Amino acid sequence: MSGGDRSRRVGEQIQRYLSSRLIPELRDPRLGFATVTAVDVSRDLRTARIFVTIYEADPVKRKAAMEALTGAAGRFRRELGRDLRLRFTPTLTFLEDESIERADRIERLIHEIHESGSEDAGEGDEDRPGGDESE
Known about the structure:
By secondary structure, the protein is of the alpha+beta class. The chain contains 4 helices and 3 strands.
């Protein structure tokens, strides 16, 4: 078993644990609705970067939610160490995962381009007399 496999498995355990137990139990009004999207654990298992998506349009509220998670990192680490029985419990760093927001923005742009392209194509059809030009 390589160190990469172990760190990946520990990351998956941390992700499941945070998603199912700790974040729902936090009950911080600043948090709103958050999802742990990925956990990246270092090969030596000393640090873990927790990627979280905050489903909130207001950037001020998203920032407050990230502050709530960062403030609870010590508690999360203690409970992870106790319940997962890791020799070393990694230091947790919470980062906002903006990939879903970025993908949504790209999808909207593609949709807008597609819409404007079909409108341009439709304008050309109006100039043509009804019927096939070969007749």
